[in-house]
Amino acid sequence: MNDTPNSPNLDQGQSTEKDRKSHIAHLLKSLPNLPGVYKMLGKSGEILYVGKAKSLKNRVTSYFAKTVEHPKTRALVQRIYDIEIIIVRGETEALLLEQNLIKAHKPPYNIILRDDKSYLYVFMSTDKFPRLGFGRGKGNHVEGRFFGPYPSATGAKEALLLMQKLFMIRNCTKSYFNARKRPCLEYQIKRCKAPCVGMISREEYLDDVNSALLFLSGENAQVQEMLVSKMEKAAEELNFEQAAFYRDRITMVSEMQARQAVFRLEGEADVFAVDHKAGVTSIHVLTVRGGKVLGGKNYFPDEIVLAEQNNVERLAEFILSFYFQVSDDLPAEIIVSEHLPDADTIAELLSEQFGKKTQIKHRVQKHRSEWLSLAVLNADNALKAKMTDYYELKARFNALKSVLETVSPRAIDRIECFDISHTMGEAAVGSCVVFDSGGSRKRDYRQYAIHDITGGDDYAAMRQVLMRRYTKHELPDLLLIDGGKGQLNIAKEVLSELGKLDDTLLVSVAKGEGRKAGLEVLHFIDHDPIDLPMDSKALHLIMHIRDEAHRFAIANHRKKRDKARGSSVLEVIPGLGEKRRRELLNHFGGIQQLISASELEIASVKGIGRVLAGTIYKALHD
Description:
By secondary structure, the protein is an alpha+beta fold. It has helices at residues 17-30, 56-62, 71-79, 91-105, 153-167, 174-179, 185-188, 202-216, 220-236, 240-261, 311-326, 343-354, 366-404, 458-472, 485-498, 537-565, 578-588, 591-596, 599-603, 610-621; strands spanning 2-4, 36-41, 47-53, 82-87, 120-125, 132-136, 144-150, 269-277, 280-289, 292-299, 333-336, 359-361, 415-423, 426-436, 439-440, 446-449, 478-482, 505-510, 521-524, 530-531. It contains 20 helices and 20 strands. The longest helix is centred in the middle third of the chain and has 39 residues, at 366-404.
């Protein structure tokens, strides 16, 4: 493997656009017609994009062709100041080097998965009294046995809730477990046997743990036999309450077994189906483990689009990104909707990465064919739904660019928007949401817990958030602040202190007359305010981004506030005794669900009237 030196970077402070283009043109002429990996560098030498090619000359040159129309590709090309290449000896070497460079540097234009969260797993820890929980990433949080992966949080939470109902295994953290002096609410609603305070022996508890592990492994029949044996023993000892408990668990297991029998077949696989239209790609990933379909998830890869790319190339690139960036579980089979010429190379690379063998299959039969058909159907339907949003978003971005051309000639691709949320100064949180011409970039969203300011001082909160954000990060093309001239001036002061005021277009979005939606006014530093008409697509885009920042800030503020208040609030509400607290939590399934309930829903619980419901609601929210 050889590093091929290029011309030195230009003095970025003095270079002109003409110098940049001349330098790039010189580099393109000197590129070899050999396989390798290329790195595209920005103004400060940062890596913008990493790619691989069978012919470095042909692939890199194609980015600068006049026929390239995709906005993300054009935005990348405008930011390239230098190109570095590494020549390699073979395809596997190129694939591995490309993925390792992406993983190490996280170039902004390589992140093809806007939602790149790891899949969820249900796990059983290895503590003295094992804990049942779920988390993202296999083995990232605890040591123990893992089950999954679950493509959606709903599936993982349902599995966890079922385990708690069936086997009453604890799900609290170690610190909470060690600090208990009396049984918690989970014990009262029969979701835990309170091993923390000795309500069950370790031997009995581990017996329940083993039953849970058998159930999660698919050994439902064996679990049912064990429960029947325990029920009969309890009945013989005239312990009818315990016998009834096991009878109810046997019924639950039987119902689950009957439900799963319809879907349960042999095999474990990830099934990938791709569809593409008008610059938008849809890929559906169906997850099958132990013959059971655990769910599926739609992805819309945020790709760099070149003329020669087809679905085969898109799918191959996605599969590598999926296993290097998202999944930490490699199944025995990968089933794909397109024939991949490099299937053996990709399978070999993934096998080396995960330390276990896998096969990539295109032609499949029987139930595997049904899995593939299901994935194809979901990919097609997801693309149809996405296209409507895609065309509307494109129109809104074009409208915004037209409006802002009168203020600044700057190209607008990346937009970041900030908002502050708190309740009377309590649990203040700042949010940053990110959008570009492809929509929201949720993987780039950030929240900032605000400290050491006077409660309710929104200006100080905004100053702190912006300073923390842009001390470390580059500025976007457009920086939106939710607020009026005051917030705009705070942002101006921060960027001036950082010496970055000229690196972005700074705009604040203020509510108009009567603070009614649709009457927003845009304020600028060196330009008169712009009052857009209510039917303006540019205004619709700004309102959408602003509302998303507001939603994200409120959601995180409420989590922080609710965690601080905790479930102990219920214990100090007058007229709400232990029995009624238990009724409430049984009805809603937990404190978080109760907090989310309306006053009317609380009043519908047995033993809770309208007056007490109002008191409970205020205690949880005021």
